[in-house]
């Protein structure tokens, strides 16, 4: 079975999830089904609340069996849209001509479906402030004329930090970082005073 039994998936509302089941030998009389509670979030929630409140034990009302499509003599598949957030489970199985079920070994696949807005809800933009200065759009910042002077200072143990971006340069980029890219967290690399000794 793909995803493998026991696997845990993270998806978002609007995504699709694909299950496939493969048989070791050709068996045209086999049918395949996916047993899942996908699309039954409200029923699952009501069952859990009712069960924990002591009103009644959990039933199987939130499970459903969905026929899978045969794509070859050996393989069946199904692709489902994820329309609601929640935690769902599923497992594919075979039914033979006599109605006997055959299940893969292992536990159900778990699918944690988050709201679509969470895709970028925790996206971190790591900003190296020095990179946002006047030289931001240049292909190279190497100045051959200045390089020979700087190498003399380097040889004497000095560190030369060229002119670079400042916070005010980064601030100008915030609409792009937050609104266009959808990042919600701005991580600044360590900010230290320019060494003078």
Quick structural gist:
The protein has 3 helices and 11 strands, in the order E-E-E-H-E-E-E-E-E-E-E-H-H-E.
Commentary on this structure:
The chain is of the alpha+beta class. It is 19% helix and 29% strand. It has three helices and eleven strands, in the order βββαβββββββααβ. It has helices spanning 41-52, 144-155, 167-180; strands at 8-12, 16-22, 31-36, 64-67, 69-70, 75-81, 86-95, 101-102, 109-114, 124-127, 185-188. The strands form three sheets. Strands 1, 3, 4, 7, 8 and 9 form a six-stranded mixed beta sheet that branches. It has a three-stranded antiparallel beta sheet with strand order 2-6-5, with no helix packed on it. Strands 10-11 form a two-stranded parallel ribbon. β5 (69-70) and β6 form a beta hairpin. The chain is elongated. The model has no long low-confidence stretch (mean pLDDT 86).
Secondary structure topology:
Layout: E1 8-12, E2 16-22, E3 31-36, H1 41-52, E4 64-67, E5 69-70, E6 75-81, E7 86-95, E8 101-102, E9 109-114, E10 124-127, H2 144-155, H3 167-180, E11 185-188
Parallel strand pairs: 1-9, 10-11
Antiparallel strand pairs: 2-6, 3-4, 3-7, 5-6, 7-8, 7-9
Q: Which blocks of ≥5 consecutive residues have pLDDT under 50?
A: none
Q: Number of helical segments? A: 3
Count the E strands.
Answer: 11
Strand content: 25-35%
Biggest β-sheet strands, sense, barrel: 6 strands, mixed
Query: What is the averaged pLDDT score?
Result: 86
> Residue share in helices?
10-25%
Task: Measure the end-to-end span.
Answer: 64 Å
String of helices and strands: EEEHEEEEEEEHHE
Radius of gyration: 29 Å
Label the overall shape. elongated
Structural class, judged by helices and strands?
Answer: alpha+beta
Multimeric state = single chain
